[in-house]
Design a protein that fits this description.
Elements (H helix, E strand, L loop, with lengths): L2 E7 L2 H4 L3 H12 L6 E9 L2 E6 L2 H14 L2 E7 L16 H13 L8 E5 L2 H19 L3 H10 L6 H8 L3 H10 L2 H18 L3
Parallel strand pairs: 4-5
Antiparallel strand pairs: 1-3, 1-4, 2-3
Helix pairs in contact: 3-5, 3-9, 5-9, 6-8, 7-8
Length: 204
């Protein structure tokens, strides 16, 4: 089941249009993925980008990465799209596109600590996925530079804590302490839970 992500730049009138640089960052992030991208991200209208993915784990990765960088409102629509899907995502239509539009507008609310929202054909599961993602992103936003250093190092495939300790020149105990303080294990579990909820939200 596809997932439409609509991501809108915040404050572009003040900070300038950063869409092209953002699209390059997204392309670099997704470049190594052989699966999961149905339609690559492109500028949809104004300072907004849109893409279609079919892997909920990848949706979570993108949402968390964008939330970490700040400056963007993330809307996720979980549901069907009209087939066949056009080559350009800008010409796409269907339930997931409509839900993504609703979600990104909700994400722009100034009352939100994290500018992210999810809407699905199963509305309850969509809002549950949103709650988990927002909580994980809010916790990550409180992470120290030292915490991010070890969390980023642990993201490499097959890496072990002892490998990270060696590369950073610290003890394995120090790495473990930083990971605990960074809530790394909790975030990992939250990402998995959010992906499962996205599947339910999409009606899978």
């Amino acid at each position: 089941m596809p997932y439409v992500m609509t991501i809108d730049q915040r404050g572009s009138r003040v900070h300038g249009d950063h869409v092209e640089a953002f699209l390059l960052e997204l392309a670099q992030m997704l470049g190594s993925r052989e699966h999961g991208v149905v339609r690559a991200f492109e500028r949809a209208v104004g300072d907004e980008v849109q893409g279609v993915l079919d892997d909920p784990d990848l949706v979570v990765d993108v949402a968390m990465t964008v939330s970490r960088g700040g400056g963007w409102s993330v809307g996720i629509g979980a549901g069907p799209v009209d087939e066949p899907l056009p080559e350009s995502v800008r010409a796409g239509y269907g339930t997931a596109f409509i839900l993504a539009r609703t979600a990104v507008e909700a994400a722009k609310s100034r009352s939100r600590s994290v500018s992210l929202a999810v809407r699905g054909i199963d509305d309850g599961a969509g809002r549950d996925a949103e709650a988990v993602l927002v909580l994980a992103a809010a916790a990550a936003a409180r992470r120290s530079p030292a915490g991010w250093e070890v969390v980023d190092a642990m993201a490499a495939p097959g890496v072990r804590q002892e490998d990270v300790a060696t590369s950073l020149g610290v003890s394995q105990q120090a790495v473990s302490q930083r990971l605990r303080a960074a809530l790394w294990a909790e975030e990992t579990a939250a990402r998995s839970a959010a992906a499962r909820l996205l599947r339910i939200a999409a009606g899978e």
